[in-house]
Amino acid sequence: MKNKKYSKEMLLDFYETMVRIRKFETKLTEYFTKGMLYGNIHTSIGQEAVATGTNKALEKTDLITATHRGHGQIIAKGADTKIMMAELFGRKTGYCQGKGGSMHVADVSLGILGANGIVGAGIPIAAGSALASKIKGTKEVTVAIFGDAASNQGTFHEAINMASAWKLPAVFLCENNNYGVSVNIHTVTNVEYISDRAKGYNIPGVVVDGNDPIAVYEAVKQAVEYAREGNGPSIVECMTWRMRGHYEGDPAAYRDRAITDEWAKKDPIDNFRTRLLAEGIEEAEIVKIEEAMEKEINDAIEFALESPLPDPSEVTTDVYSSDNERCVAR
Amino acid sequence: MKKISISKAISEGLHEEMLRDENVIVLGEDMAKMGNVFAITQGFLEEFGPNRVIDTPISESGFLGMSVGAAMRGIRPVVELMYVDFIGVSYDPIMNQAAKMRYMTGGQVTVPMVLRAPMGSGRRNAGQHSSCLETLFTHMPGLKVVCPSTAKDAKGLIKAAIRDDDPVVFLEHRLLYAKKEEIPDEEYIIPLGKADIKREGKDVTIITWSRQVYFALEAAEELEKEGIDVEVLDLRSLVPLDWDAIKESVCKTHNVVVVHEGVKRSGFGGELSAQITEELFDELDAPVERVAALNVVPPFAPTLEDAFFPHPADIVKAVKKLLNK
After folding, report:
1. ipTM for this model
2. Domains of chain A (ranges plus CATH)?
3. For a Cys-Cys bond, which of A250, A324, B158, B278 suits A320, CB 3.0-4.6 Å?
4. Residue A140: pLDDT above 90?
């Protein structure tokens, strides 16, 4: 960054996305505490740099599969925070008309093939999307986003093996936040880095600082270009930390306080803000973004709360695309 | 008209759809170079190339999941599980992904894939290669389930399944593959959810599908000698279910036997029996009778396997019991 490789506009754009995610997630924690959100909420607070760096490296036509902790990735890919918030509040105006909620947000027109409630299930879906691009002869790249814990699912191995064998235009992006709910990755995995496994598939594997959006951006950009040129997939592993529990209400007592405090100093947004100032960007410009994002998320909440819940009669719609009524009846 | 086997009929249906729509692909174990264990895709690799005819590694969960992803992008994968029993290692992509994707995304996404899976007992393949598991799939909202019994039906139904925008599980009985039948020369489609009366009768309705259709027809011949006139209704697809055809037949005969090769407990026969009892109780002269496999693991030895799943004699016995004869 010191060499002014990136424009001020681009840096501020990165910052804006990270702040948008942080404010979105923080607002969710408030409303969860108020008892106004249904189901489980998995926030990505602390992981905003991964989402931002990854998606800024993609074209609009590129695709992603996200995880149960996918709000950040989906926002960074371009989802409208109003429609997303409405979905998380179970409203008719949400992305899935209230049928999916937090873990199933999708917008195929934006290349978001969906978050997923099953750990590791998005990896083969992403590889399948990459296969579709290969069959069609089109140039999109699909990024499978998954956590460190998902790398121990069989789907990780099966999908990466096939993607490598067939040189599919995919990137396997591991958001390594060190924990699968309460289990530290190193207590269940005998490699230092998940990307060490890339050797086993004869594909590139890199580790980057997942709290630095520029580092993530550069690594993903390289992997995406490599895939787009027909060289096949790679693994990009982003080392990060979820600053809250697995779900809202989880005190995360299984993590060592000292390590949590250490990671708190690496808050991706605080650090990036400091770097922007060091680049000579006026604080007023930064504050302007923060205020705009605050307003956007407040508006999103307002939109969600004013939106109607789906009518109970809609419980039977959209199970099937044809013959729905008959298939649901019996 | 031409006389061809069921495996050839499925092959022809696939072939026609691949010619018609370049988004149709086939993938699975031994589908390309070998052309499938039952020659269903023989010659396809040469004709359609490796992008559309794909030999997968033995990674059922992975390639079913990839089929879901490809289908979400507009490809129409016809993916084969070599044995339906292997769904045990790959249930998530079909159950949690393909089946639910449309609903969970509020109707944004379609998953136009066909999961073809041979099934069935009688080949002495023992516990992990002999099951009929249609009930696993009918239990999962979002899936359509097809079980053809004849060459004509298999061809018309595979074409309908490929053109359907929903995930369709297409279950083929291994012991029917070689069965030959005359089918039309011209192109035709058989819509999903349309049952077929394979034999008309007035005394009792046997509702069945897949290989048991033939066993029911054999039983009907036997029963005819004793003056019992049996109607055999082949459902062909379980989801969607042709309730109109069931209702019409039940209202004609007032006696129902449901026959299937999967195990009896929680089998689809129980579902049919319940629906008929709930809605057509006044039409029934006797409780619905079920004939199904025993609630055991598919055994190996011929004596054991033959005792495991229904044969024509079991159906004859059930009909007589139902009619008090």
Report:
1. 0.96
2. 8-329 (3.40.50.970)
3. A324
4. yes
Pick from A138, A156, A321 the residue to mutate for testing the B interface (most B CBs within 10 Å): A321
Dihedral angle sign, alpha carbons of residues B153, B155, B157, B158: positive
Contact partners, residue A250, CB within 8 Å, separation at least 6: A181, A244
Strand pairing class (B204-208; A205-209): unpaired
* Mutate: best of B22, B23, B66, B168, partner A, most A CBs <10 A: B66
**Residue pLDDT, tens place only, B128-155:** 999 999 999 999 999 999 999 999 999 9
Q: Give the distance from residue A321's alpha carbon to the nearest chain B alpha carbon, in angstroms.
A: 6
Task: Average the pLDDT over A145-164 and give the result.
Answer: 97
Contact (CB<8Å) B62/A158:
yes
* Closest chain A C-alpha to B145 CA, distance in angstroms: 10
CATH of region B2-183, choose from 3.40.50.970, 3.90.220.20, 3.10.20.30, 3.40.190.10:
3.40.50.970
Known catalytic residue: A326? no
- For residue B159, is pLDDT > 80? yes
What is the reported pLDDT for B117? 98
Could you tell me which of B198, B203, B199 has the C-alpha nearest to residue B252?
B203
Among chain A residues, the shortest Cα distance to B58 is held by A158
3-state secondary structure of B198: strand
- Domains of chain B: which residue ranges? 2-183, 196-322
Q: Indicate the residue of B66, B104, B240 with minimum beta-carbon distance to A159.
A: B66
Q: Are residues B69 and A126, on separate chains, in Cβ contact within 8 Å?
A: yes
Q: Annotated catalytic, B60?
A: yes
Assess whether pLDDT exceeds 80 at residue A155: yes
> Is domain B196-322 in CATH 3.40.50.920, yes or no?
yes
Confidence tier at B69 by pLDDT (50, 70, 90):
very high
d(CA B116, CA A219): 40
Residue that has been written with the tokens 């999708």 in this structure:
A106
Whether residue B70 and residue A121 make contact (CB cut-off 8 A), yes or no, is no
Render pLDDT for A267-286 as a digit per residue (tens, 0 to 9).
999 999 999 999 999 999 99
Chain A: nearest CA to B227, how far in angstroms?
34
